């Protein structure tokens, strides 16, 4: 029974945390989608889009005052012709209005409606129709865009496309919403317009958050009114749709959807379905003029110079009312205007594909961290992790929205974390006493009684099976072992005895400073600090131990005088960092050891110590601020097997004093070296080598490297990082 509880407490709760983390993917009852939208709406209310001073968008509003002055809607199209002519300077003039039927007020209709004499009827018949006047105005303007309505009732084909289209990657048709037909404008108007776009808001939700960039009828794509107006305004002829599996686009082995729309110099990021998130500004920030003032000439034509004008209505009874994250019951035309505004402002809300994975990993990571924290620190510790983690997620989401306009979902990870905290706290209460009682039995198999007692006293900080800890690692290796072996080739027993004596001396120096010897690997020793019990000063202890090892080696060499033709030397590598420490192995045979990148780096640094002519090389995480030791930076290196650069140091005992002048020259040397000022760096080496110091072999090594760089210089963007070719 105990064994079953052990397995469940160790793995079952983490497994539960992982399982809960998948809930947003399954999204039961659209719960997480609704919560995401709520969080995104909140961000928009807190940080609405600002309108830049050179915003070209203006709404020509058919408002109540316009109806009162000109008459009820629909107006005769000669009035719309006047409006069009008055806005002749606009870079694009769009109508968020459908003209599906001929104007009923055309002069020709008077002939059939009224009894006219033959002469008058003939004269009336010769007059141009209002539709012709409007069509002529549209044609003369040259940048008019009309709207059309897609639906699933009218099976007519949309107007002939007036744009070119280039697609990259997967066929976008499979991702874009399909309609059965379209309701078009009358032909005389359609053929006169420079473009035709869909007026669809494309959103069945109560709140509009996205607008489609394209919709389709079978294989014919129809741009949105906003997109078509933008095309005409910038003078572009062709849209480019970039989908998954296009060049430079990640699809992760699948058809993931549309990535963006390119239009001339403009790039519009989209959802996989080809929709664009709308970043809203208050409606009051959208420049608006009355249609009546335009028709009457009160608004001069020069006002529209270079502007993108959109004709729509806010009049009572004509409203297409919509709600946005920040406002309720606003005219639909303002939403289209907002989309055009943000295209020209190049401000787009985005949810890149990688965000979904990042949100999942954030929820998973926090859930696992809370689980481990509760097991290690109890419910209070877990609550602290939950609060800090939640604050971090919310802060990160807000930061990405404010600085990058990325829509990062903070809600889903928080719900996951809260659920995990409640459940794991309950189960942890059941397992705590069992966990404490098993510590002594688990470690008695391979640790001394004294260490077992120490672990039992601090069992709450120990997680059997492995825990993540910040630790310091030391690797020590005998230099020139092959040379030693050759001298003892006829007496292997004496060689074994010598190595054992040396390892004993070095090991005692480690143990005296609280180190734990992990293992012996031939003539190499691996040790670590801050486990299994906590040691707050583990970096200091490791460095002190390394100096003690060198001093012990000096005494050992004195005891061997006359027995060897040379002195024994060791190289030491020290590094600090996070690792996993705990029981590794099988149920029947296991070892208390460490795993992690920081461990490997310590081993690599030991291998580099001989290259630099130094007894000791430290990683940057082992550097001690304000230490009594002489800590000296020596290089930036990418050790074999790692691409990341590491600043490395060496260390001397406090009594080894380096003059301030020498240290200034050393720092100056590193600056000249990293800026590729080879001659200046070599000159400084000449001065440094001539001064009495412990770094002569190091400077000789760096001079040889500089000589090589003079022949084969690094790239111009080189930052002083040496890439090691050996271990």
Task: Give the N-terminus to C-terminus distance in angstroms.
Answer: 48 Å
The tally of helices reads 22
| Poorly predicted parts | 1-7, 443-450
Q: In total, how many beta strands? A: 27
Q: What structural class results from the helix and strand content?
A: alpha/beta
What global shape is seen? elongated
- Tell me the radius of gyration: 38 Å
Relative strand content: 15-25%
Most strands sheet: 9 strands, mixed
Mean pLDDT: 85
Give the count of structural domains. 4
Question: How much helix, percentage-wise, in residues?
Answer: 40-55%
What report would you give on this structure?
This protein is 44% helix and 20% strand. It is elongated and about 140 Å long. Strands 19, 20, 21, 22, 23, 24, 25, 26 and 27 form a nine-stranded mixed beta sheet that branches. Strands 1, 2, 3, 6, 7, 15 and 16 form a seven-stranded mixed beta sheet that branches. The chain has a four-stranded mixed beta sheet with strand order 4-11-12-13, with no helix packed on it. The chain has 22 helices and 27 strands.
Descriptive terms for the model:
alpha/beta, Alpha-Beta Plaits, 7-stranded mixed β-sheet, 44% helix, elongated
Indicate the topology:
Elements: H1 2-21, H2 23-26, H3 31-46, E1 57-62, H4 64-70, H5 77-86, E2 92-95, H6 108-113, H7 118-126, H8 130-141, E3 144-151, E4 164-168, E5 178-179, E6 181-183, H9 187-190, E7 195-198, E8 210-212, E9 214-217, E10 220-223, H10 225-234, E11 238-243, E12 258-263, E13 266-269, E14 275-277, E15 288-290, H11 291-296, E16 308-313, E17 321-322, E18 330-331, H12 332-345, H13 353-404, H14 411-443, H15 449-457, E19 467-478, H16 481-487, H17 492-512, E20 516-521, E21 524-529, H18 538-559, E22 570-585, E23 590-595, H19 597-609, E24 616-619, E25 630-638, E26 646-652, H20 660-674, H21 678-690, H22 696-711, E27 721-723
Parallel strand pairs: 1-15, 1-16, 2-3, 2-16, 3-7, 4-11, 5-9, 22-24, 25-27
Antiparallel strand pairs: 3-6, 8-14, 9-10, 11-12, 12-13, 17-18, 19-21, 19-22, 20-21, 22-23, 24-26, 25-26
Helix pairs in contact: 1-13, 1-14, 5-8, 10-12, 13-14, 14-15, 17-18, 20-21, 21-22
């Amino acid at each position: 029974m105990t064994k079953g509880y052990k397995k469940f407490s160790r793995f079952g709760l983490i497994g539960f945390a992982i399982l809960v983390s998948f809930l947003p993917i399954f999204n039961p009852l659209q719960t997480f989608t609704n919560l995401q939208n709520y969080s995104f709406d909140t961000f928009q209310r807190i940080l609405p889009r600002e309108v830049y001073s050179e915003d070209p968008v203006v709404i020509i509003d058919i408002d109540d005052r316009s109806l009162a002055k000109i008459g009820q809607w629909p107006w005769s199209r000669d009035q719309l012709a006047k409006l069009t002519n008055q806005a002749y300077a606009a870079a694009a003039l769009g109508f968020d209005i459908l003209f599906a039927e001929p104007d009923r007020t055309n002069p020709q209709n008077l002939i059939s409606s009224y009894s006219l004499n033959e002469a008058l009827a003939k004269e009336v018949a010769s007059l141009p129709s209002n539709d012709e006047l409007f069509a002529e105005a549209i044609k003369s303007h040259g940048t008019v865009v009309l709207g059309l309505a897609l639906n699933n009732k009218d099976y007519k084909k949309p107007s002939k496309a007036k744009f070119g289209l280039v697609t990259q990657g997967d066929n976008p048709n499979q991702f874009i919403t399909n309609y059965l037909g379209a309701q078009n404008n009358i032909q005389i108007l359609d053929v006169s317009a420079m473009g035709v776009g869909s007026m669809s808001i494309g959103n069945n939700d109560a709140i509009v958050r996205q607008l489609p960039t394209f919709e389709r009828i079978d294989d014919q794509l129809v741009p949105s009114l906003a997109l078509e107006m933008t095309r005409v305004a910038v003078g572009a002829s062709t849209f480019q749709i970039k989908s998954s599996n296009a060049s430079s686009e990640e699809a992760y082995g699948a058809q993931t959807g549309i990535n963006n729309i390119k239009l001339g110099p403009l790039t519009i990021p989209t959802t996989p379905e080809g929709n664009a998130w709308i970043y809203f500004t208050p409606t009051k920030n959208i420049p608006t003029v009355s249609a009546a003032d335009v028709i009457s000439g009160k608004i001069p034509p020069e006002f529209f110079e270079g502007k993108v004008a959109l004709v729509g209505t806010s009049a009572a009874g004509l409203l297409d009312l919509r709600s946005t994250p920040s406002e309720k019951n606003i005219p639909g035309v303002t939403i289209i205007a907002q989309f055009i505004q943000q295209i020209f402002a190049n401000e787009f809300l985005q949810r890149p594909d990688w965000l979904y994975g990042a949100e999942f990993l954030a929820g998973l990571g926090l859930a696992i961290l809370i689980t481990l924290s509760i097991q290690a620190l109890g419910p209070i510790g877990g609550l602290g992790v939950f609060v800090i983690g939640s604050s971090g997620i919310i802060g990160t989401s807000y930061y990405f929205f404010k600085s990058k306009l990325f829509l990062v979902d903070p809600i889903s990870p928080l719900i996951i974390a809260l659920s995990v905290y409640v459940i794991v706290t309950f189960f942890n209460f059941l397992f705590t006493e069992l966990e404490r009682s098993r510590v002594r039995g688990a470690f008695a198999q391979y640790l001394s009684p004294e260490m077992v007692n120490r672990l039992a006293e601090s069992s709450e900080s120990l997680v059997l099976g492995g825990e993540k800890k910040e630790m310091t690692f030391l690797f020590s290796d005998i230099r020139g072992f092959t040379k030693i072996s050759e001298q003892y080739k006829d007496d292997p027993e004496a060689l074994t005895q010598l190595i054992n004596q040396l390892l004993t001396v070095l090991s005692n120096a480690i143990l005296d400073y609280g180190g734990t010897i992990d293992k012996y690997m031939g003539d190499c020793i691996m040790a670590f600090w801050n486990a299994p019990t906590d040691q707050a000063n583990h970096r200091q202890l490791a460095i002190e131990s390394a100096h003690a090892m060198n001093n012990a080696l000096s005494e050992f060499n004195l005891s061997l005088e006359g027995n060897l033709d040379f002195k024994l030397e060791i190289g030491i590598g020290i590094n600090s960092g996070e690792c996993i420490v705990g029981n590794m192995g099988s149920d029947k045979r296991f070892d208390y050891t460490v795993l992690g990148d920081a461990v490997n780096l310590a081993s690599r640094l030991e291998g580099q110590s001989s290259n630099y002519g130094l007894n000791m090389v430290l990683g940057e995480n082992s550097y001690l601020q304000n230490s009594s030791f002489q800590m000296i930076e020596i290089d930036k290196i990418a050790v074999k097997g790692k691409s990341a650069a590491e600043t490395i140091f060496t260390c001397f005992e406090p009594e080894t004093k380096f003059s301030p002048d020498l240290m200034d020259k050393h720092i100056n040397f590193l600056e000249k070296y990293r800026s590729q000022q080879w001659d200046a760096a070599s000159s400084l080496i000449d001065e440094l080598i001539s001064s009495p110091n412990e770094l002569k072999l190091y400077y000789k090594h760096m001079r040889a490297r500089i000589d090589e760089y003079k022949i084969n210089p690094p790239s111009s963007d080189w930052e002083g990082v040496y890439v090691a070719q050996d271990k």
